[in-house]
Write a structure and sequence with these properties.
22% of the residues lie in helices and 35% in strands. It is built from five helices and 14 strands. The termini are close together. Bound molecules: glutamine (GLN). The site of glutamine has 11 residues, from α4.
């Protein structure tokens, strides 16, 4: 278990960082399980007010169009942009990565537009709904990773400030831009904790 690091508040009161998990739709529960296993504190984020008091956010996989509609209805899209502008870490997986992208293809759609990548939805073709692929994340893992892709997007362009951390079949699948992290696969669906551990490190945990 990872030790939960403690941020000092005025040098007196210790406060533990809490990771928010966007829980509008999709597989948020498995992210919670993973954080639980890693000993990190977490909270589900269902409404804009739930963003208060959390120090980082996970946007899970699911259906990006559904999530976008709810985010817009709740004015949570603007709140998440502001959350990111304050330098708080955000990790988007699959649909979450689509939401983070600056440009979305197939078709073009609304987005948070925080990360300088172009991403194509459902890009592996209709016949391949899901697949497990072997991937590599050389800078953060010394072993190959099993990566689960479900109606996954493909990152077609990465901007200058974006670092590719993971690859599968020659395509970038894990990318980072400062405090933002995006995976086109579902690291919460395997027992490998590498990617979540890495995100917790970005959160100072
Ligand atoms: N195909 C979904 C979308 O376009 C993403 C799938 C996923 O998150 N597993 O939003």
């Amino acid at each position: 278990m990872l030790p939960i690091s403690v941020a000092m508040n005025n040098g007196h009161q210790p406060t533990e960082a809490v990771i928010g998990i966007l829980a509008i739709q999709g597989d948020f529960a498995l992210h919670a399980k993973m954080l639980e296993r890693l000993g990190a504190r977490w909270r589900l984020v269902k409404h804009t007010a739930d963003l208060n008091g959390i120090s980082a956010l996970i946007i899970p996989g699911g259906e990006s169009t559904t999530m976008l509609n709810v985010l817009a209805d709740e004015h949570m899209d603007a709140a998440i942009r502001e959350f990111a502008a304050r330098g708080k870490p955000i990790f988007g997986t699959c649909a979450g990565a689509i939401l983070l992208a600056k440009e979305v293809l197939n078709p073009a759609q609304q987005r948070l537009g925080l990360m300088d990548i172009t991403i194509e939805r459902n890009a592996y073709g209709r016949q391949v709904d899901s697949a497990v692929r072997q991937g590599e994340c050389p800078s953060i893992a010394d072993h190959p990773l099993e990566m689960v892709f479900i109606r996954a997007p493909i990152i077609r362009r990465v901007g200058k400030r974006v670092r590719v951390l993971g690859w599968a079949e020659g395509l970038p699948v894990l990318v980072e831009q400062d405090h933002l992290l995006a995976a086109t696969f579902h690291p919460e669906l395997t027992d490998d904790q590498t990617i979540h551990r890495y995100f917790l490190r970005k959160c100072g945990l």
